[in-house]
Amino acid sequence: QVQLVESGGGLVQAGGSLRLSCAASGRTFSRDVMGWFRQAPGKERDFVAAIGWTGSSTYYADSMKGRFTISRDNAKNTVYLQMNSLKPEDTAVYYCAAGRYYSGRNYYSVPGYDYWGQGTQVTVSS
């Protein structure tokens, strides 16, 4: 059974940091693109960041560039999201996702991924 389990969310003050982890199991994800999305109440699920299977290629939504860093450890089947300089507008449920790689797939969008975690809540207080 394929599972993605996020952890590391919580309550933090504006300007603070959190590190999210996503542990994958049930299959090998080392050749997948891994991504993070977030969804605030009443809003769509938005792209946050993605990382290629080697870890050398990373992609970010504009509002996260310079504040968030995505990384992965294929030996541990785990992907991370380091979030710094957090703002109240970063408050959302954060989801980890895995997508099999093939050319032309849009990894900036929800349909680009095949597996999803249950999400972890991040709340940033002002």
Q: Main beta sheet, described?
A: 7 strands, mixed
Secondary structural class: mainly beta
- Number of helical runs? 0
Percent of residues in helices: under 10%
Task: For the record, give the distance between the C-alpha atoms at the N and C termini, rounded to a whole number.
Answer: 40 Å
Q: Strand-residue fraction? A: over 45%
The low-confidence runs, each spanning 5 or more residues with pLDDT under 50, are none
Order of helices and strands: EEEEEEEEEEE
Shape: globular
Mean pLDDT score, rounded? 96
Extended strand count: 11
The Rg value, from CA coordinates, equals 14 Å
Keywords, separated by commas or semicolons:
126 residues, mainly beta, seven-stranded mixed beta sheet, four-stranded antiparallel beta sheet, globular
Topology of this protein?
Blueprint lengths: L2 E5 L2 E4 L4 E8 L6 E8 L6 E6 L6 E3 L7 E6 L4 E6 L8 E9 L14 E2 L3 E6 L1
Parallel strand pairs: 2-11
Antiparallel strand pairs: 1-3, 3-8, 4-5, 4-9, 5-6, 7-8, 9-10, 9-11
Question: Any overview of this molecule?
Answer:
Helices cover 0% and strands 50% of the residues. The chain is an all-beta fold and 126 residues long. Strands 2, 4, 5, 6, 9, 10 and 11 form a seven-stranded mixed sheet that branches.
